[in-house]
Design a protein that fits this description.
Length: about 190
């Protein structure tokens, strides 16, 4: 138990998307219009809307910088280091970064009551697809289904509510998606 007298709520928790987060529920015929994988010089990248995306250096997140790597940078960077220097050390991706049960176990160790979960890549790709509202909707309907599969949990001691990506380009999309996500997340 912590010294607070209650289990805190974490309103800024993040996950790393699985390799199939954007494609598991996406119609394969829409891949070139939405999101698909490509290999360039031995590295995997997303192709978003037909364009190679380098928005994230390594969208597989394996290996990844360890937790706290940017601590000194966000505390004012007293040594005036280049931000990229903080990210040079790498480790294999931890199970809690992609697996709901492993994440809940980790959160329980910190005595948290609940968390809001935010994506890493998901928050970047709507902008890259803004020229194609249909692709935005198809991509994020597929992505949100993946989010619920892999991250929604109301079982156990820690409740996790992954925050879906709401896409507004089509008039029926937002309310349909919000109602469906909230219904699923609370069952």
């Amino acid at each position: 138990m912590n010294d607070l007298g209650y289990a805190p709520f974490d309103a800024d928790n993040h996950y790393y998307e699985a390799l199939d987060a954007f494609t598991r529920y996406l119609d394969p015929a829409l891949g070139s219009r939405c999101v698909e994988w490509a290999e360039v010089n031995g590295r995997r990248y997303h192709v978003v809307g037909g364009m190679l995306s380098r928005a994230v250096t390594n969208p597989t997140f394996d290996p990844i910088a360890p937790p706290g790597a940017m601590h000194d940078y966000f505390r004012g960077n007293p040594d005036k280091r280049n931000p990229l220097e903080f990210l040079k050390a790498r480790e294999s991706i931890r199970p809690a970064y992609r697996d709901r049960a492993a994440r809940v176990e980790t959160l329980e160790a910190f005595d948290l009551s609940s968390v809001w979960l935010f994506p890493t890549l998901g928050m970047l790709y709507e902008e890259l697809l803004k020229h194609d509202p249909f692709a935005v909707c198809a991509t994020f309907e597929a992505f949100n289904r993946w989010v619920l599969d892999d991250w929604a949990s109301t079982k156990g001691t820690v409740k996790s509510l992954p925050l879906p990506i709401f896409h507004w380009p089509m008039s029926t999309g937002p309310s349909k998606n919000l109602n469906g996500l909230l219904t699923t997340a609370h069952t």
